[in-house]
């Protein structure tokens, strides 16, 4: 991870799926992907009949809806709104923890006692509350990391389906093309026009970026 030179040099908010090594980067602010949480919560509700899981899912979705609406005309939620959502979140988590107490250690048994999946998820949500709700505190933080996963998907498909990469040069060329296409799309530009501009030697470069 250090050799990749991304997280070790990153200075923003890293939104990820709670993989423990990511938290080793203490100079990075962290956010947790709520698409992952919603899937996990659906599993807990269906598999373990945890009613609190549906409540916390709805809470997250309600916050997202409020943030999506608010970001159209202001850059943050009011403090009263934040406090209300935090209280609702805390109340649901407390109810879930009451229904899923820590397991009792059997006398004479060594090692840590294994917890149930619902208890593990509750501990994650409560212990990383600020990271879970990072999108509520800072509108620049996305609700999930789906965009990052979509950006990686084409690369993984290329490795799997199209014969992988035979040379490092070929991989570099593919990354350059995919990166250009992705940037054009994210900036709302017409794809064919941008490709033609690139072939003419005048590629699209977002404002604030310095081209070579």
How do the helices and strands line up, and which of them pair or pack?
Elements (H helix, E strand, L loop, with lengths): L12 E4 L12 E4 L1 H15 L2 H20 L8 H21 L17 H11 L1 H4 L1 H4 L8 H16 L6 H19 L4 H9 L13
Parallel strand pairs: 1-2
Helix pairs in contact: 1-2, 2-3, 3-4
Structural class, judged by helices and strands? mainly alpha
Approximate strand percentage: under 5%
How do the strands of the widest beta sheet line up side by side? 1-2
SSE run: EEHHHHHHHHH
- Biggest sheet character: 2 strands, parallel
User: Can you count the helices?
Assistant: 9
Oligomer: single chain
Low-confidence stretches: none
Percent helix, as a range, is: 55-70%
Structural account:
With 212 residues, this protein is mainly α. Helices cover 56% and strands 4% of the residues. Strands 1-2 form a two-stranded parallel ribbon.
Summarize it.
The protein is mostly helical. It is 56% helix and 4% strand. A two-stranded parallel ribbon has the order 1-2.
Keywords:
212 residues; mainly alpha; 2 domains; two-stranded parallel sheet; globular
């Amino acid at each position: 991870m250090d050799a990749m030179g991304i997280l070790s040099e990153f200075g923003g908010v890293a939104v990820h799926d709670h993989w423990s090594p990511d938290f080793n980067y203490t100079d990075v602010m962290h956010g947790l992907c709520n698409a992952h949480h919603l899937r996990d919560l659906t599993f807990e509700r269906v598999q373990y009949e945890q009613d609190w899981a549906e409540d916390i899912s709805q809470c997250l979705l309600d916050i997202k809806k409020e943030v999506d609406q608010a970001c159209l005309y202001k850059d943050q939620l009011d403090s009263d709104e934040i406090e209300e959502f935090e209280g609702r979140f805390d109340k649901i988590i407390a109810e879930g923890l009451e229904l899923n107490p820590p397991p009792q250690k059997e006398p004479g048994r060594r090692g840590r006692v294994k917890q149930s999946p619902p208890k593990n998820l509750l501990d994650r949500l409560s212990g990383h509350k600020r990271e879970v709700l990072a999108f509520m505190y800072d509108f620049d933080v996305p609700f999930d990391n789906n965009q990052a996963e979509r950006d990686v998907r084409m690369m993984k498909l290329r490795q799997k389906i199209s014969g992988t990469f035979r040379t490092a040069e070929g991989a570099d060329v593919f990354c350059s093309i995919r990166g250009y296409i992705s940037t054009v799309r994210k900036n709302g530009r017409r794809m064919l026009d941008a490709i033609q501009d690139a072939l003419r030697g005048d590629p699209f470069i977002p404002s604030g970026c310095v081209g070579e």
